[in-house]
């Protein structure tokens, strides 16, 4: 027979339950996409949102509090990637807490989100354990890493692929640590990493430094390899098993430039092996096919519009038939607009990323960006037409094929509408079905990499 519960203890538990309800309501009201759509004119969540957490059990609330505590403890702790080797705890991965206004003021620039993977053909009725494998999108502008949690969701981390040298003295170092700004130390030099590098570059009217250019390591930056190594170490988790596969993306051979990826690929294979991973390579365009075209039996064309390049892959039933790249991307747009506007590239990048629409530019800067965006879209569509019209490897699709666009450069407002306008002026050499954009353009490549990593891991076990 169970012992009766002490009334005082029961009251204490009820007090904890009440506090946890309030905390959970606060977190949900600030972070939930649905809650954002149901706020009143004062910014407070409406009663319908609060009702969702009214009957949460004490056990659930205790688990949530544990997760929140771990999340805040990690995010609020001072860290520098030069010395920190901490990884995400499994509890945090199980319950991803989106950023709230309070947390965002002090946390690092790392961003997290939760998305889904295509089905691998296995039954998912019961909750499956996390499958081994990590995806890494090695983009010119951003690095995006992913791994599976709960057997169906994907935990994603992002970091801007940028750095900025700062004055190397003790006072600067102490200030960076006090402000919880991620930095790397290389010899006697200090470098601010990630999103804050762009912010500081704007403040001091400087150009941000980039470890990659046109999809591969930047030969004009002597610090490219040590800086990208630090950023990769910071964004990846520790392997969960010996030789866990990390699938990373590389650009396909460009059609408009003499460039190979042998050195680029070899450097990153070495970095990943040093971190304990078994590296596997995938073309960036093919990664988009794997993440976006499951509904078409992985048949169609995936286009990744990145910062440095446009990567294209034509696939038939998951078999990549033709892959190529075009060496013009978001960086080309930013640099071209910066030149005619006579302002730093970092300022143009910030203007673009703060939100604009190609169908209705509002400022001189947005007008310049729109002009170069249209030229960029027209250029890669014409390049695609040349390849599909002449390449013997182009598959002869019997049915119209869908084209799916992804990548950071496709995020700008009006992108898909301009693509549909411009594609009328070119002859692709194939019959086009639906022209669409990924629901999650920014994570499309890393999800495709992860999908390939998981399948490769399972085949090798």
What does this structure look like?
This protein is an alpha/beta fold. It has two domains: 77 residues, no CATH class; 327 residues, 2-Layer Sandwich (Nucleotidyltransferase, domain 5), CATH 3.30.420.40. It is built from 16 helices and 16 strands. The strands form four sheets. The protein has a six-stranded mixed sheet. The protein has a five-stranded mixed sheet with strand order 14-13-12-15-16. Strands 5-7-6 form a three-stranded antiparallel sheet, sandwiched between helices. Strand 13 and strand 14 form a beta hairpin. The longest helix has 27 residues. The protein starts with 6 loop residues before the first helix and ends with a helix. About 15% of the residues have low confidence.
Give a quick summary of the entry.
This protein is of the alpha/beta class and 461 residues long. The protein has 16 helices and 16 strands.
CATH superfamily name of the largest domain? ATPase, nucleotide binding domain
What shape does the CA trace take? globular
Number of helices: 16
Low-confidence stretches: 27-54, 71-110
Whole-angstrom Rg: 24 Å
**Based on helices, strands and strand pairing, what is the structural class?**
alpha/beta
Percent helix, as a range, is 40-55%
Across the major sheet, the strand order is 1-4-3-2-10-11
- Measured by DSSP, the beta-strand proportion falls in 15-25%
N-C termini distance: 49 Å
Number of domains: 2
Largest sheet: 6 strands, mixed
Mean pLDDT equals: 80
Q: How is the secondary structure organized here?
A:
Elements: H1 7-31, H2 33-36, H3 47-50, H4 58-76, H5 90-94, H6 101-104, E1 111-116, E2 134-138, E3 142-149, E4 153-160, E5 163-166, H7 170-178, E6 183-186, E7 189-193, H8 195-203, E8 212-213, E9 216-217, H9 224-235, E10 245-250, H10 262-274, E11 278-283, H11 284-292, E12 300-305, E13 310-316, E14 319-326, H12 330-341, H13 345-353, H14 364-390, E15 401-406, H15 415-423, E16 432-437, H16 444-460
Parallel strand pairs: 2-10, 10-11, 12-15, 15-16
Antiparallel strand pairs: 1-4, 2-3, 3-4, 5-7, 6-7, 8-9, 12-13, 13-14
Helix pairs in contact: 1-4, 11-16, 12-13, 12-14, 14-15
């Amino acid at each position: 027979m169970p012992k009766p519960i002490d009334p005082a203890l029961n009251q204490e538990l009820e007090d904890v339950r009440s506090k946890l309800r309030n905390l959970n309501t606060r977190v949900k009201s600030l972070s939930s996409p649905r809650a954002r759509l149901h706020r009143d004119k004062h910014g407070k969540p409406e009663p319908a949102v609060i009702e969702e957490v009214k009957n949460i059990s004490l056990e659930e609330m205790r688990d949530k509090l544990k997760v929140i505590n771990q999340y805040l403890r990690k995010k609020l702790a001072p860290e520098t990637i030069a010395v920190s080797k901490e990884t995400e705890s499994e509890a945090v991965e199980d319950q991803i807490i989106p950023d709230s206004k309070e947390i965002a003021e002090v946390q690092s620039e790392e961003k997290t989100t939760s998305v889904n993977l295509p089905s691998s053909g296995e039954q998912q009725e019961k909750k499956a354990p996390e499958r081994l494998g990590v995806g890494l999108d090695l983009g010119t502008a951003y690095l995006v890493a992913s791994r599976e949690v709960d057997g169906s969701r994907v935990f994603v981390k992002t970091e801007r692929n940028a750095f900025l040298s700062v004055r190397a003295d003790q006072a600067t170092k102490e200030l960076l640590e006090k402000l919880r700004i991620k930095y790397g130390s290389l010899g006697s030099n200090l470098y601010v990493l990630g999103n804050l590098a762009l912010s500081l570059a704007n403040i001091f009217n400087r150009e941000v430094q980039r470890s990659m250019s046109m999809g591969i390591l930047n030969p004009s930056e002597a610090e490219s390899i040590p800086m990208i190594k630090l950023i990769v170490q910071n964004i990846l988790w520790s392997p969960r098993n010996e030789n866990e596969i990390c699938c990373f993306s590389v650009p396909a051979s460009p059609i408009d430039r003499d460039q190979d990826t042998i050195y680029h690929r070899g450097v990153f294979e070495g970095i990943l092996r040093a971190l304990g991973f078994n590296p596997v390579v995938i073309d960036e365009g093919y990664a988009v096919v794997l993440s976006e075209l499951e509904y078409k039996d992985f048949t169609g064309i995936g286009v990744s519009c990145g910062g440095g390049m446009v990567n294209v892959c034509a696939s038939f039933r998951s078999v990549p038939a033709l892959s190529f790249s075009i060496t013009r991307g978001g960086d080309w747009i930013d640099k071209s607009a910066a030149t005619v506007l006579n302002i730093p590239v970092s300022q143009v990048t910030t203007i673009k990323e703060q939100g604009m629409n190609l169908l209705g530019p509002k400022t001189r800067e947005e007008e310049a960006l729109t002009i170069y965006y249209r030229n960029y879209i027209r250029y890669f569509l014409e390049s695609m037409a040349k390849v599909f019209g002449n390449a013997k490897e182009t598959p002869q699709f019997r049915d119209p094929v869908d084209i799916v666009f992804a990548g950071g450069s496709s995020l700008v407002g009006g992108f898909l509408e301009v693509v549909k306008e411009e594609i009328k002026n070119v002859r692709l050499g194939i019959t086009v079905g639906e022209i669409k954009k990924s629901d999650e353009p920014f994570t499309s490549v890393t999800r495709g990499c992860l999908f390939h990593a998981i399948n490769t891991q399972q085949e090798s076990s």
